[in-house]
Every structure is written in C-alpha cells, then in structure tokens.
Specification:
alpha/beta, D-Maltodextrin-Binding Protein, domain 2, 12 helices, 11 strands, about 45% helix
Length: about 325
C-alpha cells in the first residue's frame, strides 16, 4: 500500500474515532444523590434505581451515582443539571426562583395524608397537561413530595395556639405565608444550612418532614416535635431535555421504563417509610418530646391558613381549575383508582 493509501486509511480511522467519541461519552451520566454516603436516600433509592436503569439499558448507559454535596447541592442542582455538569438530579421546585408556582398546588396543608398519595396525584396532574408550561424546559422523570411536615422546635414552645415571636425555616413561598398567618417569621434556608441556623438560634423551629432528620442530623438541634400534617414541599427527578435527547435509543427507553407514575409512587412509598422510621427513632431518644394540637387548636390553625390557598387560586393562571383538578385526582388516588 502506498503512502497516499495509508494516509487515507489513517484519516478515515481518525474520523470514525472522532465521531464515535462523543456518542460513547453520552452513555455515561452522573447522578447526584445529594445525600450522605450510606444514607437510605442513596442506598435504598438512588443507587437501586440507577442500577435498574443501567441493567435495562443492556450496556447502552452507565450511571455514576455521587453522594454528598460535592457536585451539586439544593441551591445549585437545577443549574448544574441544565448546564450538563450533572446529568440527572433531583431538586425542590420551591427553591428554584419561582419557576414552578403551579406545582405548589401539592404543598398545601391538610390535603394529602401521605407522600405516596401526593406524589401520584402530582404526576397525574402533570400528565394532564395543566402544568406543561412549568416543565417546558426540563425533562421530569418523576414528581413527588416529601411526607407531610411537622413543626420541630429547638426548645419547648411557649404555646401551641400560634407561632407568635418564633422564626421558622420555610422551604417555599406558601410555607412562608402559612407561618406568617400563624404569627411567625419565615426564614428561607436551603436544607443543608438548617443545622447551623438552628444551632446558632437563627431560627427557632422548622417546618420539616421526618425524612430529613437522618441526612441533616436535625435530632441534634431539636427537642419538641409537633406532628400536624402541615403541608409539604415538592421534588422532581429530572434531566435537561437536551441531554436526554442526546442519549442512545436504548438508554432513553431504559430511563422511560423506570420513570413516570411508577417512579413517583416509588418515591412516595420510600419517603413515607423512611419518615416513619426516622420519626420513631427520634421520639424514642431521650430529650425529645412529641406534641399534639387539641381539636380546637387544629381547627384554628386550619382556619388561619385557609386564606393562603384562596389567594393562590386567584393569583395563578387557572388556579381554581388546577386546585380543583388536583383535589379530584388526589381523591381518586386515596380511593385506590
């Protein structure tokens, strides 16, 4: 073979390698668990999910699950995923600059009894198209909520009639409004900031699900716990549409087969079970006390926060219709439909 022929072969080989390189790179994606290594979030939810996707992809996709907050945290995970620093993540919509106000419909107090119920209802609401404009620039793989929040105090509250004089961490605008309607002062903090804030007295209490106690070590900085089903926060498991579209067909199918309502329900089941376990562990620890509202106090709380939902319905485009659709969908889920 002459020199020109060898040069041609070399050129073609280089071109093939160059073309194949990016395609191969797209089959490896980073998944951020945003939880400590060894935690239930990582070991019981994210890693088994990633392993199932990889197995179903039959070699077309590998998923590198990263624990902790080194590659992403609750404050920057949306940008990290959208900018392809991390390819698959999860986020609390309430912390993403007001981009998901309609999704807040699943957060209101005294509606759902569990995360599983709320998560399935929220996914079905998304599937109906009524939340479409909020997710036009993101690829949701599952939608869900945390379990219903309790109120967790750094020390015994003076009264359970109200929240007068207390500073409380809020994870969303509606949560802040509920706190204000009960006389408290809402403070916006990312979850990983909460431990230090309670330790230093920056906040006196937090609206929080039991499921956060393990990852955030909140048992160290709280003493009294009011189980009151006082609303929740939403989450999404998501990718950027561009990254999703760039994956091979087999990889996208494996992701699709492990997403949607089934994954939303799985999130709810996992987070409910984890919350129940965490709550029992904390309350069994010396120095921790469970509090409960009297029927009269509960009725008062419900009445005082009701205007927040009423205002939300009026402020959001199609708010009344979306709230009604969510309630009807939630009723179906509760009925086992």
């Amino acid at each position: 073979m002459n020199k020109m022929s060898w040069a041609a072969v070399a050129f073609v080989a280089a071109a093939i390698a160059s073309a194949a390189g990016p395609a191969c790179a797209q089959t490896n994606i980073i998944v951020t668990a945003m939880s400590p290594a060894g935690s239930p979030f990582s070991n019981e939810f994210f890693r088994p999910w990633a392993d199932k996707i990889a197995a179903d992809a039959k070699g077309a996709l590998t998923l590198d699950v990263r624990d902790g907050f080194a590659v992403a945290n609750f404050g920057n995970v949306y940008d990290r995923v959208m900018n392809d620093v991390v390819q698959l993540g999860w986020a609390m919509q309430g912390l993403i600059g007001g981009q998901f106000p309609l999704t807040e419909v699943a957060t209101f107090p005294f509606e759902a009894d569990s995360s599983e119920q709320a998560s399935v209802a929220l996914w079905r609401l998304y599937q109906s198209g009524q939340l479409a404009r909020e997710y036009a620039n993101v690829k949701p793989l599952a939608l869900g909520t945390y379990p219903m929040n309790g109120l967790h105090y750094a020390k015994a509250p003076a009264t359970l009639d109200n929240l007068n004089g207390l500073k409380l961490r809020a994870a969303s605008k509606p949560q802040g409004e509920w706190i204000s309607h009960l006389g408290g002062t809402p403070i916006t903090l990312n979850p990983e900031e909460l431990y230090g804030a309670m330790q230093r007295g920056v906040v006196d209490a937090t609206l929080q699900a039991w499921s956060a106690f393990g990852p955030l070590k909140l048992a160290d900085v709280t003493t009294h716990h009011l189980d009151v089903r006082f609303g929740t926060s939403t989450i999404m498991l998501f990718m950027s549409p561009q990254k999703y579209a760039s994956l091979p067909d087999a990889a996208r199918k494996a992701i699709d087969d492990n997403s949607g309502e089934g994954r939303s329900r799985a999130w709810g089941q996992f987070i409910d079970a984890n919350a129940d376990k965490q709550g029992k562990m904390v309350l069994a620890t010396p120095g921790h006390t469970r509090l409960e509202l009297s029927p009269a106090q509960l009725a008062s709380w419900r009445q005082r926060v009701a205007p927040v939902a009423d205002a939300w319905k009026k402020a959001q485009p199609d708010g009344e219709a979306i709230f009604a659709r969510y309630r009807a969908t939630l009723a179906d889920v509760k009925a086992g439909k």
